[in-house]
Amino acid sequence: MIAFDEALDQRDRWLPPGAGEVPLSGVAQRDWHALTDLLFPVLVLKEPALAHNLDLMARFCRANGVWLAPHGKTTMSPQLIARQLDAGAWGVTAASPAQARLFRDFGVRRIVIGNQVVDPHGIEWLAGEPDGVWCLVDSERAVELMDEGLAGRGPVLVLVEMGLAGGRTGCRTPEEGRRVAAAVRGSRSLRLAGVECFEGVVSEPGERVDGVLREVRGLTESLAREGAFDGLDEVLVTAGGSTFFDRVVHHLAGGWDLSTPVRVVLRSGCYLTHDHGSYERLSPFGGRLPDWGPLRQAMEVWGLVHSRPEPDLAILGFGKRDVSYDMGLPRPLTVRSRDGRMRPATGMEVFRLNDQHAYLRLPAADELAVGDAVGCGLAHPCTVFDKWRSMPVVDEDYRVVSAVRTYF
Predict the structure, then answer these.
(1) What pLDDT, in 10s, does the model give residues 370-395?
(2) Which of 210, 236, 270 is a domain's end point?
(3) How many structural domains are present in the chain?
């Protein structure tokens, strides 16, 4: 069993020198300030934004009669996943049996594995954990492999996955979906429990998103008429990344006329921290759902100015080992001078990253000096969390109020 209050130590690179071993539960008692007491670079999570985002998504789900199983791969943090469950999440989504196994240790009762399981050892794990776990199938071959591996054990609950042409996984037509469903119904160890898709592979809302969601609904209704879900307590219909969950609600929430109740589950994960990138641009909150107001960015990285070698160039002390760069470079937000003055990072741009350094373009007349700190917003939280073993949580004044651990 994992000790989730495992002490922080020198492997947690933001921990100040001389701190010794500090249990997570004891971080707040140290009265640290993130920008004066911790080692740089430091990645912080802002508590007011986390609380706002948890509340906003919970209220949205309640108002629309849907449930939430957020993607746990975003954070892989037992402390943050516990907060999502405490805020009303129905379950958690995993990307693999290895993650699902870890989430069981986190205490998660319901887990949706958002992929097919064709790894023999993953299938073996499923055989021992059939209760409260769902996974996907999108081919008759996958059904055959699972049925062989389970060898009569189970039943394991599976969802037929629908997909988009040119996208990732999933059946490309309802006819393919029906064939896969028929294979599941003819298996020894699998039980058809619903239909799924992941529409987040599309970069903009439109007919491709709406079309696959209509197919999910149509296939679910067609299979129900054939008696595919008879004997189940409920049918699970799930979709919804962090960008188009409003379209999922539009197409799938309510209006079901089946003999078996339908539970519609969203799987958004990045809503928790939001970002300064694609989620900021595409999130329904504050955009297509203006009445709900926006999510708030909860994640920032702070690095010191290591060099000002040219009038319009500064080098910051963080890089690819510390921040995401796959969906956008860090966005300078705030400068903190050595005397504690804070100001907007006006006219500044990070235009390149090395392993440990960021190249900052700025006006030649700017007073930014070596030793000043620059705070940046980040894009794509999923590829930030996996770079940090732990991170401090701060209030609006950057006082450290807690810390979270990650398990990648």
Answers:
(1) 999 999 999 999 999 999 999 999 99
(2) 270
(3) 2
Question: What distance in Å separates the CA atoms of residue 317 and residue 207, rounded to the nearest whole number?
Answer: 44
The predicted model gives 48-55 an average pLDDT of: 98
Q: Does 144 reside within a domain?
A: yes
CATH number at residue 315: 2.40.37.20
* Residues 238 and 318 placed together within one structural domain of the fold: no
Judge if 238 and 301 occupy the same domain: no
Residues 6+ apart with CB under 8 A from 247: 199, 205, 209, 210, 213
What pLDDT, in 10s, does the model give residues 186-214? 999 999 999 999 998 877 788 999 999 99
CA separation for the pair 23, 340 (Å, rounded) = 29
Structure confidence by residue, pLDDT tens digits, 320-365: 999 999 999 999 999 999 999 999 999 999 999 999 999 999 999 9
| pLDDT number for residue 206 | 86
> Is the Cβ–Cβ distance between 381 and 391 less than 8 Å?
no
How does pLDDT run across 116-163, given as a tens digit for each residue? 999 999 999 999 998 999 999 999 999 999 999 999 999 999 999 999
Residues 38 and 119 in one domain: no
- Are 392 and 244 part of one and the same domain? no
My answer on whether 249 and 304 are in the same domain is no
190-197 and 235-239 beta bridge pairing: parallel
Evaluate whether residue 103 is within a structural domain: no
Q: How many helices (H) and strands (E) does the chain have?
A: 10, 18
- The yes-or-no verdict on residue 288 having pLDDT over 60 is yes
Is 115 among the domain residues?
yes
Confidence of residue 1 (pLDDT cuts 50, 70, 90): low
CA 182/CA 268 separation, integer angstroms: 29
Cβ(78)–Cβ(111) under 8 Å? no
In the chain, the amino acid numbered 79 is: Q
Same domain, 143 and 265: yes
Tokens of 271: 């809503």
Q: In this structure, are 139 and 172 located in the same domain?
A: yes
Whether the Cβ atoms of residue 66 and residue 253 lie closer than 8 Å to each other: yes
| Structural domain boundaries enclosing 155 | 110-270
Phi (first) and psi of residue 199, to 5 degrees: -90, 0
Q: H-type helices in 88-157, by residue range?
A: 97-106, 120-128, 140-150
Written as one letter, the residue type at 309 is P
Of the candidates 247, 294, 293, the residue with the CA atom closest to the CA atom of residue 274: 294
Token pair 């003819």 is at which residue? 186
Contact 38, 32 (CB under 8 A): yes
